[in-house]
Amino acid sequence: MLKDNVLKKLNEQIQLEHYSANLYLAMASWCKANGLDGSAKFLYAHSSEEMMHMHKLFNYINETGSMALISAIDAPPTEYKDLREVFEKTFEHEKLVSTRINELVELTFGEKDFSSFNFLQWYVAEQHEEEALFMGILDRMDVIGFDGRGLYMVDKEIGKLAVVAPA
Ligand code: FEO
Asked: Candidates 2.40.40.10, 1.20.58.480, 1.20.1260.10, 3.30.1490.20; correct CATH number of 4-70+80-160?
């Protein structure tokens, strides 16, 4: 069984991962509505990845004999100025997720809950990858730029990064 404070924070992380999935799904919808099919494809696939992050936490909690919870999820924004803003927001969001994961790691270490500490190492590595991925997209935007056919090229490049999450 998990300690109450660890369980509470793990359940909050479920909620945040669930929100992440909805956020990226809503962004995919905005991209699709604006003719940005490559970005829509990428964000749609990334939404599935966030659901996998959520399920992984859910299963871990339940395996310990504690109870994973599904809580109310805030509706994500639906309007963006442009594609650059969409990906600036994804990067900001991933930095928030990393902060929360680091807080969880610190908590489990302090509580000597080494099983949860070990479980969370997967998320630590994953956040490193995700921050690098989204920062890389912003860098690509800077390199390609948005002049002329720039937006078309940027969108095409982002589409190539779409990875279908494992089931
Ligand atoms: Fe599950 Fe992108 O953090």
From this structure: 1.20.1260.10
